[in-house]
Design brief:
Strand content: 15-25%
Distance between the termini: 22 Å
Largest sheet: 5 strands, antiparallel
Structural class: alpha+beta
Shape: elongated
């Protein structure tokens, strides 16, 4: 009996690990292309920091890849065993389908605990560190916030463009100042510019733009018809200053999202609410407390989905009875899309009166109920 259990476990673990690895690669590659490659290409982070950021992506991606990977793995493993009549032989020895699947389900249960730990402890810290690296690197090299050839609108009332950048030097630097109505009031062009962090006399952190060979054109305020002549000035060296807090949030830590909170932080936020505004009313406080409870339950429900989807995959694989990877992958995709559509529908509910923290469990309940019904039907044959 132990030989059969090891066989089922090995088949499931091998196929599940391979499928999970494929999904992790796809998800990480998407984030690398979106965030890391761009940050390295623009000089915001070094190559070493880029590698560290890639490593920090894995804890946040694995909990999403595990349900899909294990669903696909169980379909592949049991589909192959069904097509080659291995399951028939095991049933002939007196084992039910549920008993045959027990090693795979125990393995999935262990992954539930692992995924919950990642979701609630490791991934929040990794996501926060990822963001800190991305923002902190820009603090070390403020010029990196300017992407050559693109308009930068991060400073209120100012548009900045640079033709090129070499390390910390911005070349062919342009700056346009706008009034509150969006009308152009000043144009500054410099051959070179360097952005550095500094502290002004008031003790406030600022970004100082040191200009070389600068030329400035200013228009009178309110002259929307351009009826008055503009004034011109030039300087071999000049400087401008902007508040640093508008870009780097110097006055506080990296802004975190609700899903980035660890278990302890979520428990604390359940008592006070998430980012409750001053003088908030009771309904608003209740809503923000419910947001925290829903997020906590969402982490747990996402982890439990590994078990529920694996449980559903066992009778589905027997019914499909195919060993082809393409067929089983298509079935896995259809099941996964249905599950995530149900999860998204449950997440749309925000009213505390409908208990969205409990509704988030509804997809798992539906999947497990369907799986048990299919297992019962499969046991009759």
């Amino acid at each position: 009996m132990r030989i059969l259990d090891r066989h089922v476990l090995l088949e499931t673990a091998t196929a599940g690990s391979a499928a999970t690895g494929a999904f992790v690669f796809i998800m990480v590659a998407g984030n690398v292309l979106k965030d890391v490659i761009g940050a390295i290409a623009t000089g915001r982070v070094s190559g070493g920091q880029g590698l560290e950021m890639i490593g920090l992506l894995f804890p946040g991606v694995i909990p999403y890849a595990l349900p899909l990977g294990m669903l696909t793995g169980v379909l592949l493993a049991f589909g192959r065993m069904s097509s080659q009549h291995e399951l028939t032989a095991m049933k002939a020895s007196g084992r039910s389908l549920a008993r045959i699947a027990r090693p795979a389900l125990i393995f999935a249960s262990g992954l539930v605990v692992f995924s919950a730990w990642l979701n609630l402890e490791v991934a929040p810290i990794a996501n926060t560190e990822f963001r800190r690296l991305l923002v902190g690197s820009a603090k070390d090299n403020p010029s990196s916030i300017i992407v050559p050839g693109q308009l930068n609108r991060q400073f209120p009332g100012v548009i900045i463009r640079a033709g090129a950048r070499e390390d910390e030097i911005l070349q062919d630097f342009w700056l346009w100042r706008l009034d509150p109505r969006g009308q152009l009031v000043q144009t500054i062009h410099a051959r070179e510019a360097r952005i550095v962090r500094a502290i002004n006399p008031a003790g406030v952190a600022v970004l100082r733009v040191n200009l070389t060979e600068a030329r400035m054109e200013s228009r009178p305020p309110g002259d929307t018809a351009f009826s008055q002549p503009a004034s011109f000035a030039s300087a071999q060296a000049s400087s401008l200053e902007f508040p640093a807090s508008s870009i780097f949030k110097e006055n506080g830590p990296v802004e975190r999202k609700l899903r980035w909170l660890t278990t302890t932080e979520l428990w604390d936020a359940m008592d006070t609410g998430w980012q409750v505004p001053p003088e908030a009313k009771a309904d608003e406080i209740a809503l923000r407390k419910m947001m925290v409870r829903t997020q906590f339950m969402s982490h747990l429900a996402g982890a439990v989905s590994i078990f529920s989807l694996c449980l559903l995959a066992v009778p589905l694989a027997v019914r499909v009875g195919r060993s082809e990877t393409f067929v089983n992958a298509a079935v896995a995709l259809g099941v996964a899309l249905t599950y995530y559509m149900l999860t998204s529908a449950a997440a749309w509910v925000k009213n505390p009166a409908y208990h969205p923290d409990l509704l988030i469990w509804l997809p798992n309940i539906i999947v497990i109920s369907t799986a048990l019904w299919l297992l019962q039907r499969a046991g009759r044959h």
